[in-house]
Every structure is written in structure tokens, then in C-alpha cells.
Design brief:
By secondary structure, the protein is of the alpha+beta class. 49% of the residues lie in helices and 15% in strands. The chain is built from eleven helices and ten strands. It has a four-stranded mixed β-sheet, with helices on one face. A hairpin with a 2-residue loop joins β9 and β10. It is globular, with a radius of gyration of 21 Å. The protein starts with 7 loop residues before the first helix and ends with a helix.
């Protein structure tokens, strides 16, 4: 399906990016999965070729493109493998916070290096005792003179091992009512005294994506590293979660499309009882059902992306897409593995990796249960 928001320029960009990935990513992805990390060298090559933060204004090292170019990058990286999610988080989730709320000094200090890959970013919201309930975080930042003293722990942090710059949600006002009004965002550099990285977390899937715990122990952060206004952090996060959840929905849609393609190829070549399993009615019905769900998902998603690019408020629809498309992809992973038979359970078949990778999409960026809460509230319930 041709995306309605993409032009010929976008498609030329896709061809160039795909050629880059065929040389620099596809041959090495299996090794990255085994190593449980994507090398920094790949990030630098992405930056050198203009594939990091393309929508950054030119004055900060970007190309000043529309968000359609980011969609192309997201799609092509997902085709390589879901473990590339940290690049999309850097491009489309963390960096936009600095663009929107950073001071001119912060932008000039960090953004050019974000575009080259010299700085890899992460965002630290989740804590051992606080996930979907962001207002319940316990990491504190107390202003003492010219610095905030940060204490607390974050977990499940994407890019946690590589991160040079972390956007940290913390409580700057412990007595705020309601609680979320006491949350602020701080930009914390990896060399900051009192900031350390915990163990590299071992996950069920997304093996090549580095995920870690972050610890702040009397971590002294200059007050000029406050992002935006003190006490406005929760609102900033709510504003930016629309794009984050859209990125997750897009990845789920592409994963579903990839799983269907690889399964079609398999069932046409695999025989049972003397004929291709694609000829069995049960197989045909399963494929027909999945293909229909995928086509409908793509139509909804493309319209949603077009509205997002146009600057419309699509929080309700994004919540719907994040919930529905991640659930769809998870169901398709199960069906496609079943159609692969025993081979689907073997690591040498890509469906096995997809089966491992896709479930977490219904958890991060807000669980699908939270998506339903948002939808219900936006419908006036």
C-alpha cells in the first residue's frame, strides 16, 4: 500500500536507507542479537549518512525534514529487527523533548552530537515501583544552591548501557498536590558524579537492544540541566507520548506485515501429505484472516500518521492504534509460528525471533490496559 503522506522524495530516501542497511545492518544483525547490543559504530555510521534525527533543524545538525522521513527510517529498521527500537527512541522520542522544551544553550550543546551519533540518548521514567503510574515515581531531585541532588533508581531503560545523555523524570516537589505537579525533567550526562549504570538486563526478546537499570546516588546535576520549567515534567511527558505510542504502533504494524510475508513464503514451499500446505483450506483461511487484519491496520495507521504530521490532536486514535495493532501483531506471531510447525520454534527461523520480540509492545509506552483507560476517558466515560 502506498502511504498517502509520502512523496517520491521519501521513496528515494527509502531506497538509499535500505541500501545502507543491506550493507551495514542485515549482515550483522544476528551477531548483534548474540552480543545483546548494537555497536556504537553502527550509530556513528547512521549519523554520518544523515539517518539520525533527520527532522532536526539544519542549525542543529539535522536536515529539517518532515516526519515522513522518520516513518521511513522506523519502517526499514523494524524490517531488520525489533531490536533496533533504541534508534527510534533516540530519533523520535527523546530528541523531540530537547527540541520542544530545551534552552538554546541545551540545544546547541546536545543536538548536533545527537545527529552524528556521538551522543546516544535515553529517557528514564519507569522505576522498580512505578510503571504506568508515572505520578507515583519516587526518584527525587532537591535543589541545593546551583545544583539538583538526585536520588533514586530507574529500570527497563532502553539504550541504558550506551546512553550518554538521559532524560530523567524526578520529583522536585514532594508536597505537590496533585502529585504529578511535582515532577520535573532533568538532562543527566553519563559522566555526572553519583550516576551509575546497573546490570545489562536479560530480556525474553529484543536481545540486541541494550536495556539497563540506572542508579542515582547523591547525583549532583547543574540546575541549568532542568528541561523546561520545574513542575511541568508530567505535562511534557503526556504531550510527547502521542508520538511515542505512534512509533510503537508503527513498529507493530510492520512486524505483522513481515511475519505474514515470511509465512506466505514458507507455506508455499513446505509440503505435507504430498502437496504444499498453502493448498489446505485451514491454512488459506488463517492467511486470509491475517491479511485482512493487516490491511485494515495499515489503512488506519497511515491515516493516523497523516493527521499527526498535520499537527492534529490524535491522542484517542493513537491510543486505539497502540492497543489494537500491538495485540494484532502478537496474535499474528502465534498464528504464523503455528503455520511454520516445528520449524517455527527453531531459532534459525525468523518467526521465532518475532514471536519473542513482539509481546513487549503491548507493555511499554503505556500498557494496553492504560490505552483503554485513555480511550474511555476521551470518550467521556
Amino acid at each position: 500500500m502506498k502511504h498517502p503522506y509520502l512523496t517520491e522524495d521519501h521513496e528515494q530516501f527509502r531506497k538509499a536507507f535500505r541500501k545502507f542497511l543491506e550493507k551495514e545492518a542485515y549482515p550483522y544483525y544476528e551477531q548483534w542479537e548474540n552480543d545483546h547490543i548494537i555497536p556504537r559504530e553502527f550509530w556513528r555510521k547512521m549519523g554520518e549518512n544523515g539517518f539520525l534525527c533527520p527532522d532536526l533543524p539544519e542549525e542543529y545538525g539535522g536536515s529539517g525534514t518532515d516526519w515522513g522521513y522518520s516513518v521511513v527510517i522506523n519502517e526499514e529498521l523494524e524490517k531488520v529487527g525489533s531490536g533496533t527500537v533504541g534508534i527510534n527512541l533516540h530519533n523520535d522520542i527523546v530528541v523531540p523533548y530537547i527540541i520542544a522544551y530545551g534552552t538554546e544553550a541545551q540545544k546547541r550543546r546536545y543536538l548536533p552530537k545527537c545527529a552524528t551519533g556521538e551522543i546516544i540518548t535515553a529517557i528514564a521514567m519507569t522505576e522498580p515501583g512505578a510503571g504506568s503510574d508515572l505520578a507515583g515515581i519516587s526518584t527525587t531531585a532537591v535543589l541545593q544552591g546551583d545544583s539538583y541532588i538526585v536520588n533514586g533508581q530507574k529500570t527497563f531503560i532502553t539504550n541504558g548501557i550506551h546512553a550518554d545523555l538521559v532524560l530523567v523524570a524526578c520529583k522536585t516537589d514532594l508536597n505537590a498536590v496533585p502529585k504529578h505537579k511535582g515532577i520535573s525533567l532533568l538532562l543527566i550526562e553519563k559522566e555526572t558524579a553519583g550516576f551509575s549504570k546497573g546490570k545489562h538486563l536479560d530480556k525474553v526478546g529484543l536481545h540486541s537492544q541494550d536495556t539497563a537499570e540506572l542508579i542515582f546516588d547523591e547525583c549532583r546535576v547543574p540546575k541549568e540541566n532542568l528541561l523546561g520549567k520545574e513542575g511541568h515534567g508530567f505535562q511534557y511527558m503526556m504531550d510527547k507520548l502521542q508520538q511515542e505510542r505512534l512509533v510503537v504502533a508503527l513498529a507493530a504494524q510492520v512486524a505483522a506485515e513481515e511475519m505474514l510475508d515470511m509465512t506466505l513464503e514458507y507455506i508455499k514451499s513446505r509440503t505435507a501429505f504430498g502437496k504444499p500446505i498453502a493448498s489446505f483450506q485451514n491454512t488459506q483461511f488463517k492467511i486470509a484472516e491475517m491479511a485482512t487484519d493487516i490491511e485494515m491496520g495499515r489503512a488506519f495507521l497511515d491515516q493516523l500518521i497523516a493527521e499527526h504530521i498535520a499537527g492534529e490532536d490524535v491522542v484517542t486514535k493513537v491510543s486505539m492504534a497502540k492497543w489494537k495493532l500491538t495485540e494484532m501483531a502478537r496474535g499474528i506471531a502465534v498464528q504464523c509460528m503455528q503455520l511454520h510447525g516445528g520449524y517455527g520454534y527453531m531459532e534459525e527461523y525468523k518467526i521465532a525471533r518475532r514471536y519473542r520480540d513482539i509481546p513487549v509492545a503491548s507493555i511499554y509506552a503505556g500498557t494496553n490496559e492504560i490505552m483503554k483507560v485513555i480511550i474511555a476517558k476521551r470518550l467521556g466515560l
